[in-house]
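Aim 2, interim progress: modelling of the adenosine-5'-diphosphate-bound target.
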Amino acid sequence: MRTLVFNAGSSSLKFGLYDMGGAEVLRLKGGFDRFAEDGCDLKLTVDGTRHDSRAPHRDMAAAIAAVPGILASHGIDGINAIGHRIAHGGARFDKPALMDAPTLAAIEDLTPLAPLHNPANLAAVRLAQQIWPGLPQVGVFDTSFHMTAPAFSTTYAVPLLWREAGLRRFGFHGTSHKYVALRAAEVIGQPVERLQIVSCHLGNGASVCAINRGRSMDTSMGLTPLEGLVMGTRSGDVDPGAFGFLSRELGLDVAQIEAALYNDSGLKALTGSPDMRDAEDRAAAGDPAAQLAIEIYAYRARKYIGAYAAAMGGIDALVFTGGIGENSASMRRRICDGLEFMGVTLDIDRNQHVDLANRAAPELQAWGGRVRVIVTETQEQLQIARETAAALAVTRRARLVLPVAVSARHVHLCQADVEALFGPGATLSAEFPLRQPGNFAAHQKVTIEGPKGALHHVRVLGPTRSRTQIEVSRTDTFALGVEAPVRLSGDLDGTPKIRLIGPAGTVETDGLIIAARHIHMHPDDADRWGVSDKEEVEVRVTGTGRGMTFSGVIVRVQPNAFTEMHIDTDEANAAGISGGAEGALIAPEHGG
Ligand code: ADP
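Predicted structure of the complex, ligand included:
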C-alpha cells in the first residue's frame, strides 16, 4: 500500500511517501518551512538523495497543492491512502480514525486543548481531501497511545468541576514513543508485550514515557505539552502556585504567564538559546548559565526515568530518541550517570560512536548491563503510515466474513504410498470434490495405527502429493499414543512416524501433524482485506453455540483458492461448531 503522510504544524508542513508492504520503504520525504510572501524553503529527499530548493508557495494550502506535482516529477503515482498526524485526540480517540465529516467535527471540538496544532492539522486534512477526493484519509493522534494509561496516572487531584470540564493528563509524542518501543523490542528480540521500557523523546519538545508491556502507563506531558521535562522553549514542571505568585508580584495575567511558559522558558530562558547544541557549546566554553541548564535538563530526565522504573517495578530497556536523544552523547551520558543502581550502565565507547543510518538501533549498555540502553531515530511518519494501513485494514476486515470449515482427520498420500496401500498401479479415485479447486475426497480409506491404538476408516484426500501427510487432532494423538507437532501443511521435516494400513499393504511414514489453523485465501481477497501470505490473524467465530476467537490463524494466499478457514475437530468442539460456521477477521492491535 502506497501511503502519503502529512504532518502539518502551525508554520511548516512535513510529508513522506511510504510503500508499505513487508519492507516499509520510504520513497520520498519533504518539508516546507518558513512561509513568507516570496515563498518558502523546500527540503526534499528522494530515494535517499537530497534536493533542497526555494519554492514559490506562500502558505500551507499552496504547499499541499504542490505535492502531487512533486510526486509526479519523481515518477511516483498510484497513492492508496493518506495518513495525517493529529496533535490532540482528547479522551475520545484512542486509535486512528477515518477522516469523515463527523470525525472532523469531533476533532474541531478539541481545539481548546490544542489551539495551534489541531486547526493546522485539520486544515491539512481538508485540503488533502480536496486534492485527493477518492482516497481514504486517516488521522493518527499524538495522544492515542497514552489512552491506555490508568486513571491513577492520568487524574489530577483537582476539584471535580475542573475534572468534569476535561482537565486530565493526556500526554503527547505517542506515535514516537510507540515506534521506538516497537523498534527496541525488535532489537531485543522479544514481543513488546513482555517488556518494560522507558523511552525518552528529547527534541525541541521532550517527554519520557513508561511503556509497560506494550502499553503507555505514564508519560511526562500532561493536559498540555507543557508538563514534564525541560524543553527548547517550554518550562516543563513548574509549581502551579507560580501563577498566583507571578500575578501578585509582577502583575502578569494568565495569558502572559502561559505564553512565557510555552515560548520563553526552557533552554531558551536558561541559556538564551532554545537549541541544545548552543547550550553544550556555551557550557564547554565555560558559561555557568549553560552548564546549569544542562545539569537541570539531565537531572529532570533522570528523575522521570527513575520514577517510571518505580512505577513499572523495574525496566528492561531505556530508549533515547529525538534530536538530543539521538545526537548528544554527552546528554545521554549525563542522564544515565547515577542510574547504575537500577542496572543502567553505559558503555562509554558505544555511547560515543552511534550510527543511526538505515533505522539502526544500536545498544549502548556496558557488557553485562542488565538494562538495555538503545538509541534510534524516531520515525513518526513511518508509524503514521503503518497505522494508516492498519486502520484501513480494520475497516476492510470489519466487513470480512468468511466460511469456517471443519477438517476431520485425513491423509494425503504420495503415489508410492497409494500403491503400497492399495496395490501396484492403484490411483486415487474421487468420491466428491472439495471446495479448494482440484481437491477431492477419495473413495479410499486407511487405518492409522499408533502404539496405543488405531483410527479406522480415515479418508484419503486427493490428488496425490510429493510427500505423505497425516492430519489428526490433538485428541487423536492420545488415541494413537503419539505426540504430533502443530504444523502448516507441507512443513513435514522432523515429524513423527506412524503406520498406515490399507487393503493391500502397510507403510511406515513420517508426516504426522496437527494442522495449524489456517485460511486458504484467494489473492483478490488478500488484497481487498489487506493481509499477506503467512500473516497471522485473529478470527472471531460467530453463529455457533459458543462464540470463540482463534488467534494465530495463518493466512495462505494461493492462486484460485476458495477463501475459507480450516480448523480441526478439537477446535470445532471447543467453539461449539457442528457443520459450518462463519468467522470475522479481527484487526491487529499494533499498527505494524
Ligand atoms: P523537533 O522536536 O522539533 O522534531 P528535533 O527532534 O529535531 O526537534 O530536536 C531538536 C533538538 O535536538 C535541538 O535542541 C537541537 O539542538 C538538538 N540537537 C540536534 N543535533 C544535536 C547534537 N549533535 N548535539 C546536541 N543536540 C543536538
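The domain at 143-391 is CATH 3.30.420.40 (Nucleotidyltransferase; domain 5). The chain has a mean pLDDT of 93.
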